[in-house]
Amino acid sequence: MQVETKLPKVGTTIFTVMSQLAVEHGAVNLGQGFPDFPPPSRLVDALTQAMQAGHNQYAPMSGIPALRRAIADKTERCYGWRPHVDAEITVTSGATEAIFDVVHAVAHLGDEVIVLDPCYDCYEPAIDLAGATAVHVALDPATFAPDWEAVRRAITPRTRLLMINSPHNPSGATLGADDLATLEGLLRGTGIYLLSDEVYEHIVYDGARHESVLRYPALRERAFVISSFGKTYHCTGWKVGYCIAPPALSAEFRKVHQYNVFCTFAPAQHAFADMLDNAPEHYQTLGEFYVEKRDRFRAQLTTTKFRPLPVPGGYFQLVDYSAVSDLPDLEFARWLTVEHGVTGIPLSPFYARPPAGQRLLRLCFAKSEATMDAAIERLARL
Known about the structure:
Aspartate Aminotransferase, domain 2; alpha/beta; four-stranded antiparallel β-sheet; single chain; Aspartate Aminotransferase, domain 1; globular
């Protein structure tokens, strides 16, 4: 039987394609953004204890009370504002589920959703499935800074939602206080909702602070702010995140969440509550942990022909490979994997219209020293 697809532009994700290619060719995989080192031992022990204590059945739809309270405490410590434990915090099965739920909670058939390119690849399929239209506005191809005037021009009476991401995947660029002030003015007087993807919120470098939307009351009142425990605690496979939004928006969000997954893995919720309450130093020092990896990797790249771009946040390093090859990025990524045993992620799949002649590859440095050393050894031969 022939199936009429609802996602005609979607195939297998670039992450799956490149990871499978890495396995087939024995390549060092710096592509998919997962750490190859373990989560904190306390977290693993807390998960085991939660299962042994019998926390193995359905959790409450919005998340267990202990975790929502711990998230509220953490949010107040980090951003100076405390969300309501019951009305404004929803625990989700990863940030991707939360993004999907936001789009389907507010975007209607015929609405427009503004996304800033390059953007994470789950954004547009969620928009398409909601019957809305993704409106792509390009970030600066050199700095990945937003052009707020271009965003303003993209707004129409049909604009329902604007999606932002800081620290940004794939570039690591971050939004500053001036950006948030400009965004506040841009949205003032409109009915446009804001989705702020902040999954790398604790991985910010060089003395900067993370400018969460939660710091800004005028933005916060129209926003869904999404976070990820998987990114913060080195356990991306656990797929646990959360969304903070005002009560009315959370109510609409939960309507989708409850019929999407209903609830999230219960033992992990107990484990994360323990970590937030009793080991806050983990997320408080996460930037220091990753800056050592960033700086070590950047120093190693000086022994290669790859030119590293600045990394203000996140755990990805963009490299310009122009001195190595003039191949388009998809072809280059495949060639580098098959012929030289290192896998990265090309940037073009993150765009609706990739910049002409862009020669950039995304490499993940959330890896052990042994993994990074093996990759550099191969890259230095080019």
